[in-house]
């Protein structure tokens, strides 16, 4: 027989191994390595905490008592898993989008972030789970005692209580070490998850090993096993339909509602796609777990002496056959099942207790303000650690008080029925928008009371709380209130009876109250978000942040999520808003994000309460929302109007700038003109004065000299007259006092005349190219004025063309009815910034090359305007280029003239 | 908040994906029915069905459901990724 010492040693080694694995996984995850930690297989294996010691040991006991009925405990979860498209997919999506930390958080968040509801769920969960933890402690203790009893070397049996205490202490330590590393419950506990996955493999392997040993080792093959099952006390299929269906439904409901299942399935879920793998892999796991249960039970019943607890066949069969190694493996399997369940259940419950009970109480005790001294982070972590200890201790206490019931499965089912009370509120919350808080609380309350009265309390047997006369005659002597026969439902299986009434009444009250009462706006918003989670995963709760003080929020969040993270969050938000520094505007979006971030650490309800304390306005009314919507619409309209105005202003500013530039240039031109004109006037005046003085004062001038000086005076006077004529001409043109002298003539003749007039004596210096064919048009206009324009343009080309061999090409084209005459030279042209001013009066390019007074082009433009045409500078040619445009009315073809 | 009526006819791929989702929904119902079938077998006294037979039936159905679930969830994923690809293509493509 296996010495007890070896067992203890193996056990401790295994535990140490788990610690190392958990530590390594945590380490790898924090270093950013270990992508395999997130694989769907790990997720699937972590789901296996559904299979507790109750499954490992108890299923065989269950089968030994009632045959195949044990399978219902696995069929329920199987159906839920393969039906993931209905519920689990939605639950996981909601859990992730709302950053839910526990099932209590989910329910409270759905029903308007109500902490009352969260407290109710938490209490029920603790009451339902404590016996279950006791059950795990008991199974470890029992299996240990079994070993001890079979070990002849051990002088005396170890104290059961102390074994349980040591196990409880060890589990608490492990859970605190790896379960409360981070405050953010949304963050995956990689260490815990990997340890659970490992334990899942160990327990499956152990059970399969025992099964294989029993079938092929003890029975001697498959056919022999079948024969022996057929000869065993459980040979017949004697399952009542009510229990079969009822238990399947119960286990399905519990699978969805158990806090520990919610923890691994939703909270620890990293990728929604993992569900696809789990959808078939987990049912497969369950199938393997139950594959050998009936053979082990049947052969155990035949082989083992009467009176041996069938719950421990998995352990006693190998021991009986002298297979110590296998027995130790089996023990480790059972140990794994028990420990993993306790760890996860403790994490899940401690999150609920600390977030929904301890933290609100603590906040309240601190005077009800979220801006207080002290580090909330430490308080929250400490609360969670203490809660873990408290929950495991409660389990231990229950184990001691109850003294360890004989049948494991019974406690398990009581616990299942307790948590199944969450189902109506959970499913209603996910699928029915009208479900509201009052309905959920009422339904939960009724279900809880019925469950307590018809199942939980009777499970202790007759006691002072529930004496025998109540069983016989009902509460207050009312016959229809007997715990096992509520409303006269006699002869039902007590379990089915209790589950049926509690869930039925729970659902009925939940629906009726929801129909009759009116939800608050927050509930309606949350309801829409939960039910339509696939349509819009983004959320829109209306925090109105007018009163919020960013700094207070910052101080508070630093205490909860840590200063570095909080600062990163705040400065990120500030950057998004286009602000420098750490304090963003408390916009509704930011507040929502902050609330979600905080809820990952302290739960939805607490986070909501804390922010609402700082922001004020804890409730959001429909009016508020309407006001917000209205305001938003107004702001949007206002901003679009502003935008339009800004554009207009920008346009105006551009125009003003252009005008200003032109004015400045004009001013410069005027200045230069004035100096030019005074120079132009002064120079002839000086010569005239000088020569007239010579003529007057000097005697004895020869007639030649007299004639020469007089000619000079005359020439200068002519020059002055011309200048003044120009000025007069321009002013007359501008004032519209000019009288047009309309004549008819051919363009070619006009150009001939013009070139001859402009050419002067130096005709050879400028080469002029013409296309005489095109010039054969007849013009009816003031030809003298037009000639003045042409002369000006040709003279300009002569004066300003700076090419080595100056050349001017005059081309004519008829574009539509308009006649366009281009004068293009081969010089360097006119700079872009000058092009706009050359037609202004007094404009002179570069103010060099003495010549005119800068009036020529201005006069040209005035003339062309009078003639109904236009003159413009033609940019982008080989040199300086001017286009003279004549309107259709003045142009006619030569044929017209001849007719 | 009225939901917009969808198109009357879907293209083949979207149609396949919806039918796969339907299959995923039907599967647990099918499983529940199949798991209840043994209840119809004789249960009283000596005429009761043998545990081994029921067990065999249960495990065969169980395995079948696991297999079907695996096939359906894989198909669903394929259809989803493919349609997601198509959507991005049709968004970016001309």
Range of helix content of chain B: over 70%
Spans of chain A of at least 5 consecutive residues whose pLDDT stays below 50 are: 537-548
List how many beta strands of chain A DSSP finds: 10
General form of chain B: elongated
Please state the oligomeric state of the protein chains shown: heterodimer
Q: How many DSSP helices of chain A?
A: 34
| Count of DSSP-assigned helices of chain B | 2
Topology:
The complex is a heterodimer of chains A (899) and B (94).
Chain A: H1 4-30, H2 40-47, H3 53-66, H4 72-82, H5 88-97, H6 103-110, H7 115-150, H8 160-179, H9 190-219, H10 222-230, H11 241-257, H12 259-267, H13 274-291, H14 293-303, H15 313-320, H16 324-365, H17 376-402, H18 408-419, H19 423-431, H20 437-456, H21 468-473, E1 481-482, E2 485-486, H22 494-516, H23 521-531, H24 550-561, H25 563-576, H26 588-602, H27 604-615, H28 622-697, H29 703-735, E3 743-746, H30 747-759, E4 767-770, E5 778-781, H31 783-800, E6 807-815, E7 818-825, H32 832-835, H33 856-866, E8 870-873, E9 881-886, E10 891-892, H34 894-898
Helix pairs in contact in A: 1-9, 2-9, 2-13, 3-14, 3-16, 4-11, 4-13, 6-7, 7-8, 7-16, 7-17, 7-18, 7-20, 8-16, 8-17, 9-13, 9-14, 9-16, 10-14, 11-18, 11-22, 12-16, 15-16, 16-17, 17-24, 18-20, 20-22, 24-25, 26-27, 28-29, 29-33, 30-31, 31-33
Chain B: H1 12-36, H2 51-92
Helix pairs in contact in B: 1-2
């Amino acid at each position: 027989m296996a010495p007890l010492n070896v067992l203890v040693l193996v056990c401790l080694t295994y535990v140490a191994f788990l610690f190392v694995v958990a530590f390594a996984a945590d380490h790898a995850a924090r270093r950013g390595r270990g992508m395999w930690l997130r694989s769907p297989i790990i997720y699937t294996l972590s789901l296996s905490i559904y299979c507790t010691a109750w499954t490992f040991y108890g299923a065989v006991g269950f089968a030994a008592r009632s045959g195949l009925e044990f399978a219902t405990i696995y069929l329920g979860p199987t159906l839920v898993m393969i039906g993931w498209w209905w519920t689990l997919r939605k639950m996981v999506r909601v859990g992730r989008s709302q950053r839910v930390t526990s099932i209590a958080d989910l329910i409270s968040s759905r029903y308007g972030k109500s902490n009352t509801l969260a407290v109710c769920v938490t209490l029920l969960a603790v009451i339902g789970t404590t016996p279950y933890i006791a059950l795990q402690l008991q199974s470890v203790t029992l299996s240990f005692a079994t070993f001890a009893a079979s070990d002849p070397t051990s002088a005396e049996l170890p104290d059961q209580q102390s074994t349980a205490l040591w196990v409880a202490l060890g589990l608490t330590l492990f859970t605190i070490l790896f379960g409360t590393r981070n405050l953010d419950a949304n963050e995956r506990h990689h260490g815990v998850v990997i340890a659970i996955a490992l334990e899942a493999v160990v327990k499956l392997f152990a059970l399969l090993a025992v099964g294989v040993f029993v079938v092929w080792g003890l029975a001697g093959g498959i056919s022999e096993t079948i024969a022996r099952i057929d000869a065993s006390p459980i040979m017949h299929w004697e399952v009542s339909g009510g229990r079969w269906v009822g238990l399947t439904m119960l286990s399905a409901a519990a699978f969805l509602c158990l806090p520990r299942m919610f923890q691994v399935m939703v909270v620890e879920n990293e990728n929604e796609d993992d569900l696809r793998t789990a959808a078939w892999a987990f049912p497969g796991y369950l199938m393997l777990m139950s594959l050998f249960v009936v053979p082990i039970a049947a052969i155990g019943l035949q082989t083992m002496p009467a009176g041996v607890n069938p719950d421990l066949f998995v352990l006693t069969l190998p021991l009986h056959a002298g297979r110590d190694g296998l027995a130790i493996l089996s023990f480790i399997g059972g140990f794994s099942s028990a420990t993993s369940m306790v760890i996860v259940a403790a994490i899940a419950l401690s999150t609920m207790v600390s977030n929904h009970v301890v933290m609100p109480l603590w906040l309240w005790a601190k005077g009800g303000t979220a801006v207080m001294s002290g580090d909330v982070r430490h308080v929250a972590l400490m609360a969670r650690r203490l809660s873990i200890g408290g929950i495991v201790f409660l389990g231990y206490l229950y184990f001691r008080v109850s003294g360890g019931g004989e049948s494991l499965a019974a406690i398990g089912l009581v616990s299942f029925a307790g948590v199944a009370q969450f189902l109506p509120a959970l499913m209603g919350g996910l699928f029915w928008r009208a479900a509201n808080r009052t309905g959920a609380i009422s339904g939960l309350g009724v279900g809880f009371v019925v469950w307590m009265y018809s199942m939980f309390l009777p499970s202790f047997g007759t006691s002072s709380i529930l004496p025998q006369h109540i069983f016989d005659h009902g509460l207050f002597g009312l016959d229809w209130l007997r715990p096992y026969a509520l409303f006269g439902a006699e002869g039902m299986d007590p379990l089915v009876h209790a589950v049926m009434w509690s869930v039925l009444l729970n659902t009925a009250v939940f629906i009726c109250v929801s129909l009759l009462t009116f939800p608050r706006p927050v509930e309606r918003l949350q309801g829409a978000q939960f039910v339509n989670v696939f349509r819009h995963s983004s959320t829109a709760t209306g925090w109105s942040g007018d009163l919020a003080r960013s700094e207070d929020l910052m101080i508070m969040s630093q205490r909860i999520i840590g200063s570095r993270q909080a600062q990163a969050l705040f400065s990120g938000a500030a950057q998004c808003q286009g602000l420098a520094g750490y304090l963003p505007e408390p916009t509704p979006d930011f507040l929502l994000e902050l609330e979600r971030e905080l809820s990952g650490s302290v739960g939805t309800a607490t986070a909501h309460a804390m922010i609402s304390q700082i922001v004020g306005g804890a409730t959001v009314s429909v009016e508020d929302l309407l006001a917000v919507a209205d305001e938003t619409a107004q702001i949007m309209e206002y901003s679009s109007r502003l935008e339009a105005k800004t554009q207009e202003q920008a346009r105006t500013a551009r125009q003003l700038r252009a005008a200003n530039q032109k004015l400045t240039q004009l001013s410069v031109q005027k200045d230069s003109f004035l100096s030019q004109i005074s120079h132009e006037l002064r120079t002839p005046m000086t010569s005239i004065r000088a020569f007239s003085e010579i003529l007057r004062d000097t005697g004895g001038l020869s007639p030649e000299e007299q004639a020469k000086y007089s000619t000079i005076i005359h020439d200068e006077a002519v020059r002055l007259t011309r200048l003044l004529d120009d000025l007069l001409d321009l002013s007359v043109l501008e004032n519209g006092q000019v009288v047009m002298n309309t004549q008819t003539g051919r363009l070619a003749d006009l150009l001939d005349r013009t070139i001859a007039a402009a050419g002067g004596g130096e005709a050879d210096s400028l080469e002029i190219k013409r296309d005489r064919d095109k010039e054969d048009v007849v013009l009816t206009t003031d030809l003298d004025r037009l000639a003045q324009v042409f002369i000006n343009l040709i003279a300009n080309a002569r004066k300003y063309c700076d090419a080595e061999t100056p050349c001017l090409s005059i081309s004519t084209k008829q574009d539509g009815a308009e006649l366009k005459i281009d004068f293009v030279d081969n010089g360097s042209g006119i700079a872009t910034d000058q092009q706009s001013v050359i037609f202004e009066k007094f404009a002179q390019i570069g103010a060099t090359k003495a010549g005119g007074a800068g009036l020529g082009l201005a006069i040209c433009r005035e003339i062309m305007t009078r003639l109904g045409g236009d003159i413009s500078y033609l940019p982008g040619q080989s040199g300086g280029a001017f286009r003279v445009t004549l309107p259709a009315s003045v142009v006619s073809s030569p044929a017209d003239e001849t007719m | 908040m009225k939901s917009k009526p969808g198109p009357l006819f879907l293209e083949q791929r979207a149609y396949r994906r919806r039918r796969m989702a339907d299959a995923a929904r039907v599967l647990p119902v099918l499983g529940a029915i199949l798991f209840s079938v043994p209840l119809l077998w004789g249960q009283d006294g000596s005429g009761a069905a043998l545990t081994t037979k029921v067990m065999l039936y249960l495990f065969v159905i169980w395995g079948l459901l696991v297999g079907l679930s695996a096939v359906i969830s894989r198909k669903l994923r394929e259809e989803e990724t493919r349609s997601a690809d198509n959507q991005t293509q049709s968004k970016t493509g001309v």
